[in-house]
Amino acid sequence: MGIGPVEAIRGAVAKAGLTLAQMDLIEINEAFAAQVLSCARALDIDPARLNAAGGAIALGHPLGASGSRIMGHLAHRLKETGGRYAVGSACAGGGQGVAIVIEAV
């Protein structure tokens, strides 16, 4: 675990043909507080856009369900806020990371 979400987010956003600045919402699953803070610093994320309605530490992340919790949360938040794009990410053991970009239509 660690900063795997950094490169995962960069890759997902680039593959979508977008920039991080275009993301209305950004969620990084909080394996632990220092982990998400180091990712936010590396990506230069505005804290107001990161885990804005609470991340995994506040909301919980049931074993094996972090990805679906992040997707559902981002989809609902895009609808609530009228946003268009969101990126969600999580780290995994060994320094790996996964990320997805979603668009409200």
Question: In brief, what are we looking at here?
Answer:
The protein is an alpha+beta fold and about 100 residues long. The protein has four helices and three strands, in the order αβαααββ. Helix content is about 40%, strand content about 20%.
Taken from the alpha-carbon principal axes, the silhouette is globular
> Helical element count?
4
Strand content: 15-25%
Q: How much helix, percentage-wise, in residues?
A: 40-55%
DSSP strand count = 3
Radius of gyration: 12 Å
Mean pLDDT: 91
Flag low-confidence runs: none
Q: Strand order, biggest sheet?
A: 1-2-3
Describe the model.
This protein has helices at residues 4-15, 33-43, 56-59, 66-81, and strands spanning 25-28, 85-92, 96-103. It has a three-stranded mixed sheet, sandwiched between helices. The mean pLDDT is 91. With 105 residues, the protein is an alpha+beta fold. Strand 2 and strand 3 form a beta hairpin.
Tags for this entry?
105 residues, alpha+beta, 3-stranded mixed β-sheet, globular
Element layout with pairings:
Elements: H1 4-15, E1 25-28, H2 33-43, H3 56-59, H4 66-81, E2 85-92, E3 96-103
Parallel strand pairs: 1-2
Antiparallel strand pairs: 2-3
Helix pairs in contact: 1-2
